[in-house]
Amino acid sequence: LGQQAGDRPLAGRRVLVTSGPTHEPIDPVRYIANRSSGRQGHAIAAAAAAAGAAVTLVSGPVALPDPPGVAVVRVETARQMLEAVEAALPADIAVFAAAVADWRPEQEAGSKKIKKDGTGPAPMPLVENPDILATIARLPVGRPPLVVGFAAETDTVVEHARAKIARKGCDLIVANDVSAEGGVMGGADNTVHLIRRDGAVETWPRLGKEEVARRLVAHVAGLLAG
Ligand code: CTP
Ligand code: CA
Question: Would the pTM count as exceeding 0.90?
Answer without folding.
Answer: yes
